[in-house]
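Students often ask why we bother predicting the structure of a whole assembly rather than each chain alone. The short answer is interfaces. A chain on its own may look different once its partners are present, and contacts between molecules only exist in the joint model. In this exercise we take two input lines together and write out one structure for the complete complex. Read the inputs first and try to guess which parts will touch.
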Amino acid sequence: MNFKLKKLDILIILILISITIFSTIILNLSNTKGSFLTVYKNNSIYKIIPLNENKKFKIDIDGHSNEFEINNFVVKMIDSNCKDKYCLDQKGIEYFSETIVCLPNSLVLKISKGNLKDNDIDDLSE
Amino acid sequence: MNIKKLTTLALLLSISLILYRVELLLDFSFGIPGVKIGLSNIITLLILVLYGFKDSILVLILRIIMVSFLFGNLFSLMYSLSAGIVSLTLMHFSISLFKDKISIIGISIIGAYFHSLTQIFVASVLIDNINIFYYLPILTLVSLFSGIIIGFITSYFDIFFRKYLIPKDTNIH
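Now the answer. The structure tokens for the assembled complex follow.
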């Protein structure tokens, strides 16, 4: 074994590049705007919020506090008391099934579509 | 295990702990959550190509347990342990399967890719949310680059170790 790249290495690199390209294309094709925000806390639905009004929400359970805002159908986490603050770095979400995850506080924000009733059934059967 | 090998492995273990700390300080994540170069994998990969699977998994498990006690928590222990063991096992199998057809760089890319794949999988099971797979494209690209960097550094150390630190009569692969 030495520095030189061998055929198999180049094959592996090409495979990974094509996986990146194809998965990006597939994920982008399925992008549609959502109409609701579903908030999951501890793996169960905590709240379903319509996206059509601009508002700030604060969720405070068991000392885990998160604050997010809805602005022009885009949801963004604006404050959290978790340790790593990764959720604050995540981009705003607006498309169907996009998520913001706050792992330490086990909070998931997910965009869903359809009317409220359909949405309830969908999420419960998941 | 003779004393020289034991000392070398212990030294490499402590180096991998230092590399982990250095990576925490430097922060290569470029603003994307969960992105890392994985500097301590240099040591895991180096021990795998120099001494083989048994010693590398020993050092890997020790390193992950120590790192979790020092800098992490029980959650990070689960993530790192599962991803580390899966990627190391696959790297080992790709060495024994492809032998001379693959270089350290290719092995390192395989390891990096399956490391992030396992972490995504574990995360999707733990938080019960399949949409975490949206990270897959970016993590594939990141693991490609970090795999190349780690593989390059490791092949340099591999040559250095074989030349100066390990006597010819030692049983290495």
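Check your guess against this: Residues 64 and 105 of chain A are 6 Å apart (CA to CA).
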